[in-house]
Amino acid sequence: MFFHIVLERNMQLHPRHFGRDLRDKLVTKLMKDVEGTCSGRHGFIVAITGIENVGKGLIRDGTGFVTFPVKYQCVVFRPFKGEILEAVVTMVNKMGFFAEAGPVQIFVSNHVSTIYFLSLLFYL
């Protein structure tokens, strides 16, 4: 469900941010751009926990922007099929019910087996 992984991303920074606190501005931009996003490969990025490496910047021709390769550690939320989650039921209708577990919206149909349905309700 939750994993602590290392990811890489190329970050572009405007020249006005160059100075003594360049690294801090880069980390702040990374957090703003990455936290709360979702990818099919890694899941929902909950939080950045650390910066492993900031590579040398490469100046882009004609713009002045600099691209920095950043390697960072983060916590991701990636649910799997068949996994039991603690969720909050948000809507019930005749076809089934909707629930939310963090950023994930779940639909459970009435057409699943009764044993599975009851065990799911027991955990909710």
TrEMBL record:
RNA polymerase Rpb7-like N-terminal domain ranges (all copies): 8-64
GO (cellular component) term, any one: RNA polymerase II, core complex
Keywords, in A-Z order: DNA-directed RNA polymerase, Nucleus, Transcription
Predominant localisation class: nucleus
One Pfam family, short name: S1
GO-annotated biological processes: positive regulation of nuclear-transcribed mRNA poly(A) tail shortening; positive regulation of translational initiation; transcription initiation at RNA polymerase II promoter
Keyword Membrane attached: no
Keyword Transcription attached: yes
Gene3D superfamilies (alphabetical): Nucleic acid-binding proteins, RNA polymerase Rpb7-like, N-terminal domain
Annotated localization: Nucleus
Span of domain S1 motif: 79-111
CDD domains: RNAP_II_Rpb7_N
GO molecular function: single-stranded DNA binding; single-stranded RNA binding; translation initiation factor binding
Role noted for this protein: DNA-dependent RNA polymerase which catalyzes the transcription of DNA into RNA using the four ribonucleoside triphosphates as substrates.
Family: Belongs to the eukaryotic RPB7/RPC8 RNA polymerase subunit family.
Name this protein carries in UniProt: DNA-directed RNA polymerase subunit
Native organism: Olea europaea subsp. europaea
Lineage, top ranks: Eukaryota, Viridiplantae, Streptophyta, Embryophyta, Tracheophyta
